[in-house]
What does this fold into?
Amino acid sequence: MSQPAAKKILILSVSAGAGHMRAAQAIEAYAAHPGGATPAATACHLDVMDFVTPAFRKLYTDFYIKLVNKAPALWGYLYHATHDAPKDSSIQRLRRGVERLNTRALMAKIAAFRPDAIVCTHFLPAELLSRALRQHQLACPVWVQVTDFDLHRMWVHEHMQGYFAATDEVAFRMRHEGIPPERIHVTGIPIMPAFAQAPARVPSAQAFGLDPRRTTILLMGGGAGLGSLDAVAARLLALPGDFQLIVLAGKNAAALAALRTLASQYPGRLLAQGFTSEVERLMACADLVITKPGGLTTSECLALGLPMIVNSPIPGQEERNADYLLEQGVALKAFDAVTLEYRVRLLLAQPQQLQAMRAKALALGRPRAACEVLARVLADGVAAEQA
It folds into this structure.
């Protein structure tokens, strides 16, 4: 008896911030390497920004990045204003009018791929496809994966097959927005398969030249609001206590060079790391993470049971993410360098609090969220065929 053909899943995201893309990549990764209850599927991940004009791309992605970096308070105002605005308000009509532009190439690509289902990890493709479904330009089911511990109304659209929520509270907010309960699934936020099996601490530390027995702090991101990465690292290394520090500079070559100069002043205490595809192994070495509270990064930390100090959240979704983490007892918040120093001193002096935070983080973590999402989408397709 021949095996049924693998279902074709199209995953749509937008390269405005890395989190939406990483969630899409996580779902795609589980499709490429199925396991357990997840059947085989053929997945294709597309960035919607590859199918719009350069002018629209610059407006949508560059403007967003500049806004959150240079005028976070203004972004916070827009986040709340667009959430609270009535559906027929001028600001909502303007937003929908802009988002309806430049979609012909995207719709052609969707038609060529002929997906059995589509998963959106950003609200823009969900909005575009809601309109296409309403106008009978698209027939396959469309799902929406919310990538924060909050729900903004920009994610809520008609004609969606289902929604994936990070928490029960986000699911509650979805029901409040009128989404039928049977279309809501609490899965967590998709992260890569590598986080489903925590790497062992000892070999991971040894691979990076770290001492697995020493308390280790991991500093991630650009240190927005706290100063440059090397300045933050120098302040931390000046604190009392026998700990080692890992700092991820990503693709920031200048920051990496400054950190390596600093590392020469603290032999055996500072690991300066550029862009890496092994974040989970570095996290496995850490006892505490200092990070921006993005939905994906914090979900990775929860999956590995890592306590966090979240720094300077952007007003809007990051602020809501930080609130959730603080309420759950898995994070503290630092809004400037002085507060960061105090929080680190506090946790280093109270290892029992770190351990309690770790246990709570492990309990909250959803390391197989992407697998659950994929399994639900595929199961829905099988049920539809049998109906």
Notes: The mean pLDDT is 87. The longest helix spans residues 369-386. Residues 175 and 195 are 30 Å apart (CA to CA). The radius of gyration is 22 Å.
